[in-house]
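Narrative summary of target 7.
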Amino acid sequence: AGSESNGAKSVAKVWKNGKQLYALTDGRDYAYANAVCLSGSDVYAAGLESNGRKSVAKVWKNGELLYTLTDGSEYASARSVCLSEGDVYAAGVEENGTNYVAKVWKNGELLYALTDGCAYAYANAVCVSGGDVYVAGYEEEGANTVAKVWKNGKQLYALTDGKNGAAARSVCLSGGDVYTAGYEENGAAAIAKVWKNGELLYALTDGKNGAAANSLFITERREKRQRRFRNKKKEAV
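Modeled conformation, tokenized:
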């Protein structure tokens, strides 16, 4: 998912196997697709499209507009989309006239305002596990931004202490553990980092050059999956 210029405006698009699958917008106003996910054979994309004055947060399904998440009176963007039990979750941001508010929508309706709008904040990623909604992003506290994870609308982890600017850009769940990827500045350059359950797991770079981790994916080892399957069979017996 992404965008391509038509010479005057950017067109939100989705590609499959290297070929354009959908042009989500008609090119009359600028638009961006920020995220894509699949459920069965359905393709969902999240992003924004300008109404000529402000950008509107939107979700598309199979190339057609599914939800207009915001009314276009203030800047907004959908940054992430995921599916759980047939429900469509999107995370992003909407301006309140003064600051950006981190938000989550479910089936086109506002589910959570994660922040109170008193400070600049962004929701960059959403995932759902067992009915629980996890969001990664950041919120400004004092002079810097703090990388954060929210669960069901409440702050779960402050990943950084606010001494340096930071942001969380991806979140995923595995075996009950919460993994987050993003970055933290070190004064000279940002360091790409991964956190597990709120604690630093990996510093991916040494800080000599600016870096950020934008996406995270967890896969279980085959032996672990097989062991879990055998244990479930024993429990069933």
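Residues 81 and 182 are 18 Å apart (CA to CA).
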